[in-house]
Amino acid sequence: MRSFLVKVAAVLAVLWLFSRVRGVMSGVFGSATPVAWLVLLVTLVLVWQFSLRLREARPWSWWPAFGAPVAVFWMLRTWAAACEELGLSVPEARSGRFGLINGPAGGLVVKGSPLKVVAPRRVGLRVRDNGLEVRVRLAPGQTPVQFERAAEGFAHAWRVHRVRVKIPRPGFVSLIGLGFDPLRHPKPRRDAPAVLAAAEMPASPEDGQERAEYPSELALPTSFEATPEDLSVNVGIREDSQAWLLDLMRRPHYLVCGATRSGKSTLTVRLIAELSKRPVGLVGIDAKNGMELSPFGPRLSALAVNRAEAVAAIEGLLGVLELRSMTCRDHGARSIWELPASVRPWPIVVVVDEVAELMLAADKAGKEEAARCIQGLIRLGQLGAALGIHLWVSGQRFGSDLGPGATLLRAQLAGRVCHRVADAETAGMTLAGLPAESVLEAQKIPADLAGVAVAGDDSGAWHLVRSDPLDITEAAAIAGQYASLRLDLPEVEGGVQAVRMGGGW
Ligand SMILES: Nc1ncnc2c1ncn2[C@@H]1O[C@H](COP(=O)(O)OP(=O)(O)OP(=O)(O)O)[C@@H](O)[C@H]1O
User: Fold this and answer.
1) Record-annotated residues binding ATP (predicted)?
2) Cα 130 from chain centroid (whole Å)
């Protein structure tokens, strides 16, 4: 009955539109109706062509003007048929009164009305910036998984890029149809103002007054205190058009994997540039001779450019960890965030680029260094979250073949980002613990979409995301501009310098 009324309303609307157009046409062209129809036809073709071009060039503008009305039309038109075809329709509640009874002459008689199926009831429709959301009430016995299986069918029926299923509350599902791929056409970023205006820049921590009882890294200017919000960084966009936030308070350590040219460095560059503006210490470990991270040198507390320097940096960070744990113990705090602001140290993010360079070694000395690196990183992973030391580890793959301890380290890195990878096994290893669909999705990332990744965490939640690209020169300029925020870590920098000068560790 309801769908019948919708159809009648649609037909009446079309007739009304038609009569209006005819009225306008005859007003403009008098009785020359063939000319009027020709003009109308040409206009329609031009509008169609314009819409196609707009879709290519500016899908964000195309969607509300053209895409959404068409998708809504197809959704309404195909709803019943699609649900039936995809196995989501259920028998109508009142159509069950039928059965077989014995007839007068001994034969069987079928009694009752024929069995009718109805589509699940839609209870809401919203057009969003880049798609439409259809809320559906589940029929008794139906589960969201059935709708997830049908999502691809709906995407084709509605002529949209993809349909995702969400559960807004028990008994309902939301089918989110994305009108176009927001990762292929990300909305231009309106850059948030820098966290600090230049005039507000504090003196560097090493300029702060020395405190006798704590090392210099704890002697921070109280005017510029770190807060947990400083560890939440917007690095790109999610497929549902929300900002992709990396929150190191919620997931203290991250593993970032991807094949060569998949976008790992671009993501790391964005992260460093954003963190550079905040009261956060940055330590770089780039065993490829510092090729990737040296542009950020002025803002880094230390940069290790080979495995020997990495050992020194990691062991220096373990020293920092030790001192921070003593400070916490003295103040009865369980994490740095519970310390009084006057002694609370800044968090430190340790960026490890191409972790395999640290762990794969041929000779005995190299193997010993690799073992020290991995043991140190594991310890930083275990204790760092509470003491404000966070790991950002990237590499092309991260499997047990990297050596003893690799699996244990991976288990510490609860945040996962998997770009396009060379093989299914790498996707599986990076996204271990996440739903199987996330692994399949990672394998489908096209080669021409650098920066697209599956991001998930140990809660099982995952999203398709794309980093916001930032030119390395621009990122280095930002880091340079905020060089005064470089956190002085003598335990780390001293060790690295000693190795560099040939003093050994
Ligand atoms: N989010 C993005 N949007 C657009 N282009 C991107 C994005 N991420 C990466 N790219 C482009 O892809 C190319 C490779 O990116 P990147 O150097 O970050 O890959 P990588 O995985 O670090 O490669 P390698 O392992 O070889 O260093 C670069 O040209 C970069 O501009």
Assistant:
1) 258-265
2) 17
219 Cα: distance to centroid of ligand 1 (angstroms) = 38
Q: How far is the CA of 426 from the centre of ligand 1 (A)?
A: 18
Kindly report the protein residue whose alpha carbon is nearest to atom 25 of ligand 1: 260
Q: What is the largest CA-CA distance in the chain?
A: 109
Helices (H), 210-303: 264-276
SS3 category, 272: helix
Q: Tokens at residue 448, please?
A: 């021409």
pLDDT tens digits in sequence order for the chain, 505 residues long: 555 665 667 667 766 776 676 676 666 656 557 777 788 888 888 988 888 888 888 888 899 989 999 999 999 999 999 999 999 998 876 655 666 666 666 677 776 666 778 899 999 999 988 899 999 999 988 999 999 999 999 999 999 999 999 999 999 999 999 999 888 887 766 654 444 444 444 444 443 333 333 334 444 444 578 889 999 999 999 988 889 999 999 999 999 999 999 999 999 999 999 999 999 999 999 998 889 999 999 999 999 999 999 999 999 999 999 999 999 999 999 999 999 988 899 999 999 999 988 887 777 778 888 889 999 999 999 999 999 999 999 999 887 777 788 889 999 999 999 999 988 888 998 998 888 889 999 999 998 999 999 998 777 789 999 999 999 999 999 999 888 889 999 989 998 999 888 755 4
User: Which residues are near ligand 1 (CB < 6 Å)?
Assistant: 258, 260-266, 450-451, 466-467, 469
**Tokens, residue 81:** 């048929």
Domain 47-95+111-181 identical in fold to domain 210-500? no
In this structure, CATH architecture of domain 210-500:
3-Layer(aba) Sandwich (3.40)
Distance CA 395, CA 30 (A): 72
Sequence-separated (6 or more) residues with CB below 8 Å from residue 215? 323, 490, 491
For the CA of 466, the closest atom of ligand 1 is 1
Ligand 1 atom at minimal distance to the Cα of residue 266: 18
For residues 202 and 215, give the distance between their C-alpha atoms in angstroms, rounded to a whole number. Answer: 20
Going along 226-334, which residue ranges are E strands?
232-238, 243-247, 254-257, 281-286, 302-304
The order of strands in the sheet holding 302-304 is: 243-247, 232-238, 462-467, 452-456, 415-419, 254-257, 389-395, 348-353, 281-286, 302-304
Domain boundaries, the chain: 47-95+111-181, 210-500
- The topology (CATH level 3) of 47-95+111-181 is Threonyl-tRNA Synthetase; Chain A, domain 2 (3.30.980)
Q: Do residues 230 and 280 touch, judged by C-beta distance below 8 A?
A: yes
CA of 236 to the centre of ligand 1 (A): 14
Residue ID of nearest Cα to ligand 1 atom 7? 451
From the list 164, 180, 171, the residue with the least C-alpha distance to 64 is: 180
Binding residues: 258-265
